[in-house]
Input
Amino acid sequence: MSNYCKYIKVSDLCFVLFAVVWIATRLIIYPYMVLYSVTIELPEYANNSGPHEQYYGNSFVMQLLKVMLGVLQILHIFWSILIARTAATKFTQGQLQDVRSDNENSEKEDESSHKHHTEDTSHMNGHIQRVKQIS
Output
């Protein structure tokens, strides 16, 4: 939002805060708190408790949970690399271009309007405008 309002410093600050919080929570807290608890502490607790060992030991559900948490950690690493690349580009080359479109259907409308119609209705920031195209 601050990027569209031309508050570049606020936008940069929000991005830096986002990156720091993301890396702290996804690459530091998550593996050492959640993954460690599920893979190391939970089996030890189950072995000491006795009757609940069959639920936590080598059960299919527990192994599936560990695999899914590991895949999530791999995704966190991948997304963190993307965030770091974006930050490096931003702070070495200057301002980034926002490649997202203003309208979700703009690509579909552009393709179909160029092929079939001579007069098109284009949506721009919630307003409808009539546009004549020269064929």
About this structure: The radius of gyration is 25 Å. The CA atoms of residues 121 and 130 lie 5 Å apart.
